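Dear Dr. V.,

Thank you for agreeing to look over these. As mentioned in my earlier message, I'm a first-year student in the group and I'm still getting used to reading structure tokens, so any feedback on how I've presented them would be very welcome. I ran two proteins. I've put each sequence directly above its structure. The first is here:
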Amino acid sequence: MSVSELIYDWNTVEPQLHKPERHIGFDDETLRDGLQSPSVCEPSVEKKIELLHLMDALGIDTADIGLPGAGGTHAAGVELMAREIGPHSQE
């Protein structure tokens, strides 16, 4: 038996990509869960708002923007982000 009979070479297969017949949603949690690492510096609210607009431009459906129940600056930042991306912000 030859080596080519023993080993299947996936590199010779032509890829067949099929568009899904349904919407695939994307939810980003980097503005919340990504900040829980001890080695991460928390970006400013202005930078987070910029990131939210970039996520929107990429077609990301939803984003977890934080935990307002944490109080203080976290709650104020979450409110600012929510107001920026909320339905009335487009008017």
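The second protein is here, in the same arrangement:
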Amino acid sequence: MNIRCIGCDSVYDIGSVFRRAAAGEMMLMLTRSRCRFNVRGLIMRVPADTLIIFDGKYPVEYSAEDCPLVCDWICFEAEKEQDFIASLELTYNRPVSSPNIKAVSELIRNIFDEFNAEGPRRTKTIDSLMRILLVKAGDLPEVREGMPDRENEPHFEALSELRSKIYRSPEMKWNVDTMAAYAKMSRSYFQHLYHDTFGVSCIADVINGKIEKAKVLLGESDRTVSQVASMCGYENEEHFMRQFKKNVGVTPTNFRKTL
């Protein structure tokens, strides 16, 4: 398994918000404090000592609300381990918990130490530890407390599919009429329901999808800013640059320099 990055005992201030695009990369997070997750519009406020595995198929938001967020996390790719992963029947995008969460924490710490060490067997050791970690994660029960069952609400599945498509295809010319037609709703009802379901307007989400895709392209390719703008559906490079800076706080070029 290929670990892209890892953190142990990471601390984030109250009010910190983090967003991950639907980029296919998996992420495992162990919270050491209370945390708020938003996955496909499902808001989850979970207690400390909770584990969640994101499968990379949907945009995810996690944040610290009333206390600093303390967590361990691993971003990894497992394309060559699909049979093994499938055999575990893991719970994705939902929190799981166990009284024996300490063992999971110790495994993450061991993986963190190996990741930052040098040695001839480093890769094999990390691979073995990751397998053990995922096996243990597969044995943990899902947390239900604090999780509103939004999936039973009318239209939730259709809106979730639309939202995933917006984030997967930011280059498309999304507008309110197009999105309302996709969801088979009237314009006004669609706008109201979308905001009520996800806590953000449909147009703001379109922009978020474009910016998240742009961040991935800026970080993982050597494409020019103009090419990135085009791939994210912007016809005007200057418009892209203004919108990127407004949402991220820095220009695309300066964002790339910080990576």
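From my reading of the second output: The first strand starts at residue 2 and ends at 12. The radius of gyration is 19 Å. Does that match how you would interpret it?

Kind regards,
E.
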